[in-house]
């Protein structure tokens, strides 16, 4: 220990240093008593060393006003820094005695072999680029096709799109549903082209990160004095609005929210509408409204001085152009909690998560595992750890995020969280004055969390014995046994293959589900069984898909790839109904022309379309051609795994049945308008259920899926 201190003293003597203390920030409003943690930053004149982190996350007041034109994007080589060993020691000494701090520094930095082993294990259990990319692609495709047909804009958020879970591990599905029909503004500019909108209201006592939403009709800011003249809007105001202490009519409930739904629930002062146990998973729908401009109360984030250029100036500008959401969540300490809405930067957080390196992504995922299986506290959530990670990346050189130092980075984040817990202040990444611990962390919880975080730091790699996710505890327990490692590795590899297959499967099933429940339900019902009108409706949707360049903030390529997944189903349905008209036409030339045209569309319908074309050949008596095409498709079906998406989502198959049919069946559906091209044997299979007990849901279905 004395040698370590002597070495550090010698390094300080050789490197002239300067100290800079962060100024205290006064937190206004209802959280005035909470203070941000303050660390002393020591900067050496020597360049090229690795900087772990230099401050707690609150930006000095002098740096807040710095303009983007002079904002620094320097690299590590321009930043003077203390050696990593000394920085770790100085941070640990704030929470431990000298001997313990010295031992922890040596344990973390001198155990590179264990660091590499740990990285490889995290990668093996599915926290890797392949799984992360597959989750992202599936989620983006899903939200594009859903948004294309929904009145709300849908964004997937959380672990389902970030891929922050081990292969085979259960995870929730989180999404934001933004009602674009009710725009939000900080300032009313010019005449409005819509009926109802909302104006952001912030008062001196409004907590940082929260707003009120005042009702605006055309250009009129509504107050209680206008109520007698607002007869047409009376029901809306009575149902969704309240009058605040200044007489403003403000929104206090989410519009058209199904609060009384039997299968959905909403916790008080929580923004998410929860769907529990939807085919074994939980879904959180966060209803939101959007302001398309960056909030003035978050300008500090745009002008923040970033020593290491993360995020870059170009990314900052891109993220600020996305505006922000407001979600129904009041500040826990506010007397007007039911009237407040919280500013949400979910789109910005999502894009920042996409930009993470592999090591940073692994770091956050492991922190979530530790939080869920070791810390187990409602006071610290995955959002707190995400905030912690963002500050760590922003305030540190990219050099520390290496394979061998993954565990060091994780412990550095835990150290930062421990500092926040001690100070009872966790700064919001976009609005640092907003304390994410406000109203949740009392003295007993603070003491318990400090103890758990310290114990987690002292346990080192032994903490992995408590992590069951991905069987990480088994990997650590049997790390000296090659045979046991091979067994675990084989099992993890199998789970990863299954997880990747599931992500691919979803990219096939979701478009089919959208086609069945959105396109067919809308187009077929509106046509009232008029085949020509139905074809016209399908043509309209087809042209709309082809003409659409982008959906929400997605790129042209992402939009094209997602919407193109709907085309095979539309082409097959178009071809089938054109074929029906063809075989019923008495004019042979018209008949042949239509059949030839339907064949061109059938070939665009992938395997399902080609199988349906066989039924057309059978219906018109071309049995030899029918047999030849069946032989051709049999080879393709054996090469291409497929499944019946209708049965997966209708939910009337057992779990065991689902697992086996994924690989062996292909979904082909027939509408009632397509009976003329449906072989008699298939008609029998489709209608044999009539006369026996079936659920009301299946009786009312407009089509019946067939397995071939």
From TrEMBL:
Residue ranges occupied by any Mab-21-like HhH/H2TH-like domain in the UniProt entry: 361-447
Keyword Magnesium: yes
Domain Mab-21-like nucleotidyltransferase: 262-353
Region span, Disordered: 1-24
Entry keyword Transferase: yes
Keywords linked to the UniProt accession: ATP-binding, Magnesium, Metal-binding, Nucleotide-binding, Nucleotidyltransferase, Transferase
UniProt xrefs under Gene3D superfamilies: 1.10.1410.40
Biased composition (Basic and acidic residues): 7-16
Molecular-function GO terms, alphabetical: ATP binding; metal ion binding; nucleotidyltransferase activity
Cofactor: Mg(2+)
Protein family according to the UniProt entry: Belongs to the mab-21 family.
Protein name, per record: Uncharacterized protein
Organism: Mytilus coruscus
